[in-house]
């Protein structure tokens, strides 16, 4: 069992930056593919970014490519999402997720564990 706890959300003006963190419990964190998803009010949850176990492979949603960066520190059991040039449409609850499978993954059903989410609000 893996427990995920997100932090770093908050209120920021358009054009600003935030860094989300997701701390994972357990000794097998380094074997998991990790991902970030988000859910805006009234919308379905959507894929944002994913990173494989080593950190060498990543994938991003087109809407965040070039602005967001996913990274991980296996020694700290933590995955990060650096968000720059934020836009009001980035406002959402951001969820961290872990997959036991190998390789980068962008579908919700491919993930086995989920955090509770952290709110990001971008004002115009």
Name the features.
4-stranded antiparallel sheet, 124 residues, globular, mainly beta
Structure commentary:
By secondary structure, this protein is mostly beta strands. Strands 2, 4, 5, 6, 9, 10 and 11 form a seven-stranded mixed β-sheet that branches. A four-stranded antiparallel β-sheet has the order 1-3-8-7, with no helix packed on it. A hairpin with a 6-residue loop joins strand 4 and strand 5. The radius of gyration is 13 Å and the shape is globular. The N and C termini lie far apart (40 Å).
Briefly say what this structure is.
The protein is built from no helices and 11 strands. It has strands spanning 4-7, 10-13, 18-24, 33-39, 46-51, 58-60, 68-73, 78-83, 92-99, 113-114, 118-123.
């Amino acid at each position: 069992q893996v427990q995920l706890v997100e932090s770093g959300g908050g209120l920021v003006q358009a054009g600003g930056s935030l860094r989300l963190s997701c701390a994972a419990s357990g000794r097998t964190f380094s074997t998991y593919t990790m991902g970030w998803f988000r859910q805006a009010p009234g919308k379905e949850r959507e894929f944002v970014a994913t990173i494989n176990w080593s950190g060498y492979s990543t994938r991003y949603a087109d809407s965040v490519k070039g602005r967001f960066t996913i990274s991980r520190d296996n020694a700290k059991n933590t995955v990060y999402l650096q968000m720059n040039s934020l836009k009001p449409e980035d406002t959402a609850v951001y969820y961290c997720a872990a997959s036991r499978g190998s390789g980068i993954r962008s579908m919700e059903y491919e993930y086995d564990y989920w955090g509770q989410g952290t709110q990001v609000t971008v004002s115009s």
